[in-house]
């Protein structure tokens, strides 16, 4: 863990000269007509860089490069042990440049530097290392046919894979897609979010240094409706892996149907329920988990436990504790290693969050703590950790994804009511429950419509287990060996033995 203090991080931040061109076919290049967009530091509202805004022609050049590399076999036909060697080297380079990459994440999207160092970067490196280690241990299959035939089922890379990712964990979200896609032998195009393009460009440089061949990994910064759309509509992209909002996920389904039926994998939004029964074995631990579950990363977490359901008998006592933890998480300068809550990613998102706080108040929710913009004099975009007691489910702050530090809490009395409230959502990403009864834990877990369920914990996870949702939270899973299936085709070869 870095021991650098606030002053040191500020000095390093002032010295940052970020890469700002697109990375296409092994080279950093300007976008067509030198078009750019500004990326802003949300901690102070100042511009960090003008970054290449890739146009459809740039996307086309990158897809052609990726296809050429794929067809050449330089990566796709490479021995799995060689792909492993290169990806392990990339993981090691990410470790080596952890401070620099963490700083780029913090400057670009406002998360606390201590979180970027302790979580984002180690998880990103681990993801590359894990898929590198997995890929030379995968066996193909022989089907149980009769003696007259031999049928093999072999995995093949799909071809050209595009990854379109959000800004909340820029490198980590990207790695969940790039690492298995590259390990499986595909050529990859990464489009980072326009709010957070800087770390992806440095990753491109490190990938080249690690030995990823020219054209196999390309990074295309740009605006969603231009660069993202061009990738979605491209006739020669075979697969598009997306993480972001449900609204944009739906667009990618449409792009696919309007173009070449590329397969689409969607990790979309969430409004995850966190249920606390009155037999909760440790109220303090649960209260802390409830606060961290919504306020960490400024609430900009797809699996944020943004709906809290607490059983009647313990409601007031429990909510007091959650509020206490919340008040301990005041927004601070993201470069200060003591900060636990940083800046909201941009002004638009901050205004959106503040708008939801307004709507909570006007719809009759009771403000328990927070509710205000913070640190306004910095020029940055900060919002206090905010908790509402909600009288009913039919409120916007209970039903809509806010993607900010706003918790909507409600009471319930019975198990059935808790499950009904929890499942009453178009989303189905995460869900948490706290109980001392093993039977109840299993019972509720089975009834919750969510891709991930936590019992007596929240947010816990590992690269070994699948991550993803049901309903309008999307389909397909990141992480675990299952993710490799998303980036592989299965070929059947039937050999007549007679
Ligand atoms: P977003 O949908 O606005 O953007 C995500 C990506 O899509 C960005 O790269 C963006 O440039 C691109 N994009 C935007 N509009 C586009 C368009 N019209 N055509 C093509 N591409 C377009 O989402 P966001 O604001 O960056 O991220 C927040 C959302 O991401 C939240 O809804 C959150 O829940 C979700 N998210 C989900 C997961 C998960 O694993 N399920 C993880 C992190 C974030």
From TrEMBL:
The active site is at 267. InterPro entries: Ald_DH/histidinol_DH, Ald_DH_C, Ald_DH_CS_CYS, Ald_DH_CS_GLU, Ald_DH_N, Aldehyde_DH_dom. Pfam families: Aldedh (PF00171). GO terms for molecular function: aldehyde dehydrogenase [NAD(P)+] activity. Residues 28-492 form the Aldehyde dehydrogenase domain. Keywords: Oxidoreductase. Belongs to the aldehyde dehydrogenase family. This is Aldehyde Dehydrogenase. The lineage of its organism: Bacteria, Pseudomonadati, Pseudomonadota, Betaproteobacteria, Burkholderiales.
């Amino acid at each position: 863990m870095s021991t650098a203090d606030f002053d040191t991080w500020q000095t390093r931040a002032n010295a940052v000269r970020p890469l700002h061109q697109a990375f296409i076919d092994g080279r950093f290049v300007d976008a067509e007509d030198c078009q750019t967009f500004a990326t802003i530091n949300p901690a102070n509202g100042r511009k960090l860089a003008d970054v290449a805004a890739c146009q459809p022609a740039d996307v086309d050049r990158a897809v052609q490069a990726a296809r050429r590399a794929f067809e050449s076999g330089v990566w796709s036909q490479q021995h799995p042990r060689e792909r492993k060697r290169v990806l392990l080297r990339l993981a090691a380079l990410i470790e080596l440049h952890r401070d620099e990459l963490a700083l780029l994440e913090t400057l670009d999207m406002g998360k606390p530097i201590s979180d970027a160092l302790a979580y984002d970067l180690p998880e990103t490196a681990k993801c590359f290392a894990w898929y590198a280690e997995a890929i030379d241990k995968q066996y193909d299959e022989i089907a149980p046919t009769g003696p007259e035939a031999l049928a093999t089922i072999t995995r093949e890379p799909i071809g050209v894979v595009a990854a379109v990712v959000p800004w909340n964990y820029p490198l980590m979200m990207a790695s969940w897609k790039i690492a298995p896609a590259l390990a499986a032998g595909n050529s990859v195009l990464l489009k980072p979010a326009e709010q957070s393009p800087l770390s992806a460009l440095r990753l491109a440089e490190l990938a080249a240094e690690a030995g990823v061949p020219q054209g196999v990994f390309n990074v295309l910064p740009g605006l969603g409706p231009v660069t993202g759309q061009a990738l979605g509509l491209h006739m020669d992209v075979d697969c598009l892996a997306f993480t972001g909002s449900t609204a944009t996920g739906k667009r990618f389904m449409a792009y696919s149907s309007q173009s070449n039926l590329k397969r689409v994998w969607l990790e979309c939004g969430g409004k995850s329920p966190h249920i606390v029964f009155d037999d909760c074995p440790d109220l303090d631990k649960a209260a802390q988990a409830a606060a961290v579950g919504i306020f960490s990363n400024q609430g900009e977490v797809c699996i944020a436990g943004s709906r809290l359901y607490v059983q009647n008998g313990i409601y007031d006592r429990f909510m007091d504790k959650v509020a206490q933890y919340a008040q301990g998480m005041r927004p601070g300068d993201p470069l200060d290693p003591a900060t636990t809550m940083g800046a909201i990613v941009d002004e638009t998102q901050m205004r959106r969050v503040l708008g939801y706080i307004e709507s909570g108040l006007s719809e009759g929710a009771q403000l328990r703590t927070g509710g205000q913009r913070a640190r306004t004099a910095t020029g940055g975009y900060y919002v206090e950790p905010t908790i509402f007691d909600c009288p009913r489910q039919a409120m916007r702050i209970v039903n809509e994804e806010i993607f900010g530090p706003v918790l909507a809490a409600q009471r319930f009395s019975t198990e059935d009511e808790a499950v009904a409230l929890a499942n009453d959502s178009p989303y189905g990403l995460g869900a948490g429950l706290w109980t001392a009864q093993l039977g109840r834990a299993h019972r509720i877990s089975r009834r919750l419509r969510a891709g991930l369920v936590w019992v007596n914990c929240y947010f816990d996870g590992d690269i070994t287990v699948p991550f993803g949702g049901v309903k309008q939270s999307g389909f397909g899973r990141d992480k675990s060996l299952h993710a490799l299936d998303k980036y592989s085709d299965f070929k059947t070869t039937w050999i007549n033995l007679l």
